[in-house]
Prior knowledge:
- By secondary structure, the chain is an alpha+beta fold.
- It has a single domain (about 15-140), classed as Nuclear Transport Factor 2, Chain: A, CATH 3.10.450.50.
- About 25% of the residues lie in helices and about 35% in strands.
- The chain is built from 3 helices and 6 strands.
- It has helices at about 15-35, 40, 65-75; strands spanning about 45-55, 60, 85-95, 95-105, 120-130, 130-140.
- The relative contact order is 0.19.
- The mean pLDDT is about 90.
Amino acid sequence: MPTTTAPPTLADTADHADDVAAIERLIADVGAGISTRDPDRCVARFAADARSVIASGVRSVGRDAIRAAHVAVFAAAQVPATARFVLLHVLFVRPDVALATTGAYPVAADVEVDRDAPPTVVTWTLVREADGWWVAGRQFTRVAA
């Protein structure tokens, strides 16, 4: 269907510094859960009906299924010894909806990373509720070498 109007600009341009900090903490905690092989920590801030595609390609619907996918990849040793997500960009499409892009690196927090060439990119859809930010969706995409 042809469009007769210009596409919308979705960015909410308000100051979201506190939101970005909260999102960074949430995502870092997911990384810490992966590094410590703690599936409960991995999904602590996932919505009950969240969607996820983990790095192994397993698609899951619902927090319980996402947790089970983490348990399975931990048992199969399909994850690096250390996981670190580095926030690359956040787009607030509404004050309470954020699309975040992170690089996923198999390194500790004190190791320098190339923000322009992450081995894996993760896209997060987050929603803010009264008690803070929640993950509604997450998609891992490996970057071709």
